[in-house]
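Form 7-S
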Amino acid sequence: MKIDQLLKTSFGGITTNKSRSSLTILGIVIGITAIIIVMSLGEGARGLILGQIQNIGARTIAVVPGRQPTSPTDFLSTFADSLKQADLAALQNKSNVPHASEIMPIVFGSEPISWQTNTYQTTVLGATELFASIYDIKPSQGTIFDAGDVESYSDSVVIGQKVADKLFEGNPPLGEKIRIKNHTFRVVGIMKSTGQLSFLNFDEAAFVPYTTAQAYIFGIKYFNRLVIEADSDSTVLETVQDVKATLRNQHNITDISKDDFFVETQESAMQTVSTIVNVLTLFLAAVAAVSLVVGGIGIMNIMLVSVTERTREIGLRKALGATDYNIISQFLLEAIILTVIGGAIGITLGALISFAVSFLLSNVYSLNWQFVLPWTAVALGLGVASGIGLIFGIYPARQAGKKSPIEALRYE
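Output:
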């Protein structure tokens, strides 16, 4: 049988029962749509996070307390208290870390802040005056607290744009007094709208001198992070080694497997994030693919029903000279056509939903989220759809090919 005749016969078999064909396609559409959405949004998330990391600068190094996380439960160790004032002093010693141009301690936590009768839950970040230059951000109003404010445990606070909007509801915030953990602070600046940057949404944060945060808000004597800026891109790796050597000496660590801290550069952070996003995307895609298996089983069942209903047709075609190969080819092609149509619809629907979600995240939530439709997702969608049709269509097609023409013609 020629290919054009085979296609015509197969399409004729599909369109004979449109309702059954539509239900068959639906299962494939759902599975492919889910895979496309997961992979597209996964790529968008990766681009967003990596873009934020790159914005911090290649020379920025983060020192985090606790062991390097290797599993989700290990992230609890990053709240350890292994970074102290003595460690900061040792790292600030130029003889220990000669290529460190700036070192900034950070403490942070979630606290409610209040003004008059309004209250807003936010992230309070204690840092030095260097946080604006290291993260390359500026206030839209007012100013940043200075080194003198850090040394004097000043009650100055700089708030993010969203905090200002929610807390003051249109009233001018500069110079106003707010309460954080039963301590009064004076608003000296409002940060320019920045959105998510590194581990923090700067629009939803309040920034105070780290000394004040340690003493009056969190009641701690250790740091949650140390951020170090190397004097050039070429000295980043050397600075990392100097930081590790200094802290190991401070903590009397001789076995590096016993480190109670870890150091991250922007490059290593990007690699880690990329790996995590890839694994998570593949895992979610695999979960979504389960629906394709269910859809494939549905195709096999419906094709078996179709074979039974079309027994007389099969007998008549065989009586007129159709071979077993012709019959098998027809039913197998029908299954593949159904799944490919479902795959094409699923890819289109998945792309449209992903675009809508990306548009929502970008315009409503002010995230730098880009719509991405990976060609691998499209290829995977069509490939999986065709494979499902081939695999789950073989058995019904073979059953059709085995039918005896005499018995088939007698079938009622």
